[in-house]
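Narrative of activities, Objective 1.

The group set out to show that a structural description can be obtained from nothing but a protein's sequence at a throughput compatible with the screening campaign. Below is one input-output pair from the validation batch, recorded exactly as produced.
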Amino acid sequence: MSKFIVAVDIGTSTIRACLYDNAARLQSIAERRVALEYSGKEDAHQRVELDPDLLWRRFTEVVKEASKA
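Output recorded for this entry:
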C-alpha cells in the first residue's frame, strides 16, 4: 500500500491541497477560492471574515480532489 502526505495551505482568498508521495514528489494540487465577507463601513472599522462552514467545505473539496490523482 502506498503512503501519501497531504499538505493544506489555507490562505486569505484561496485554499490549496498538495499530495506528495513517500519520496516527497508532488503528485497533484487542488485549489479553490474562498469568499471573504466584509462588514462595517469602508474605513478603519471594517471587518473581513471567513465563513467557517464554507471554509470546511472547501477544505474537504480540495483534499478529496488532490487525493483522486
